[in-house]
Design a protein that fits this description.
Layout (H helix, E strand, L loop, with lengths): L2 H19 L3 H17 L8 E6 L6 H9 L2 E6 L6 E2 L4 E2 L4 E2 L1 E6 L1 E7 L4 E6 L5 E2 H10 L3 E2 L9 E7 L6 H9 L4 E9 L4 E8 L6 H9 L6 E7 L11
Antiparallel strand pairs: 1-8, 1-10, 2-3, 2-6, 4-5, 7-8, 9-14, 11-13, 11-14, 12-13
The chain binds zinc ion (ZN).
């Protein structure tokens, strides 16, 4: 008997198994839902809730928008042994095991309201949410986010391009005197050539657009390019 022919049905069965087990987009979404539930059950700490006005929400696209927001993920590196989660790839020191990359949800909850034309978000405290990432996801669903109507609530980090080491103090001083924030701590990152400013908003947070205009008017060449919430890479702060 020809062994090749005998092997064919076995191969076909194997292939069919592969096709069935390959994760579909729907399954991946389901996995994320599961991860959110799991994190909620373990009472993972939550970050600052954000609420903002948008244009383009309808009764028909609310579900799709919710799904695209809850599908926002970031890469983390997990040790299969002790379950330690790290932000960067490498080895788990105590276990001496290679960390495995895993995509995890950024948002615990996303609630778009077409009646109010608003979106309410609750990120996980351990994840980093960026304004540009969020805006991209919404724009893909034809939802318009207005910089003039996006409040920089809680503690966030302003990402500025075009600044310099010499201008860091000027930027920090101006933002501390702006009335927008309780506190602003600026630092210059030579690697990315960006200026990062960790800010704590006052009770009524300033809008992204107002802060961008304020920074552009400082005559430091720095431009606001993004804002992030959540953990930040460690960079030494500028001396006041
Ligand atoms: Zn470990």
């Amino acid at each position: 008997m020809d062994t090749r022919n005998a092997l064919l049905p076995a191969l076909a069965t194997l292939l069919a198994g592969f096709l069935i087990t390959a994760p579909t987009a729907a399954q991946q979404a389901q996995d994320l839902v599961g991860q959110v539930k799991e994190a909620a059950a373990t009472k993972a700490p939550l970050g600052t809730p954000l609420m903002f006005s948008v244009m383009g929400l309808t009764k028909d696209n609310v579900e799709k928008v919710t799904r695209s927001l809850t599908s926002l993920t970031e890469n983390v590196y997990v040790c299969s042994g002790c379950k330690h989660v790290a932000a960067a790839a490498g080895k788990c020191i105590p276990c001496d095991a290679e960390l495995e990359a895993k995509r995890v949800p950024i948002l615990f909850k996303a609630v778009p309201s077409f009646e109010e034309s608003t979106i309410q978000l609750t990120p996980f405290a351990a994840r980093t949410l960026s304004y540009s990432h969020l805006k991209d996801a919404l724009t893909k669903n034809s939802i318009e986010v207005d910089d003039a109507k996006f409040p920089l609530a809680g503690q966030s980090r302003l990402v500025l391009s075009g600044g310099s080491l010499e201008k860091v103090k000027t930027i920090q001083k101006a933002l501390n005197g702006s009335g927008f924030f309780d506190r602003a701590v600026a630092s210059y990152d030579a690697v990315s050539t960006q200026t990062h400013v960790v800010v704590h908003a006052i009770a009524t947070p300033p809008m992204y657009g107002r802060v961008a205009t304020f920074i552009a008017a400082l005559d430091t060449n720095a431009t606001l390019v993004d804002v992030t919430w959540g953990p930040q890479p460690v960079v030494p702060p500028a001396k006041p």
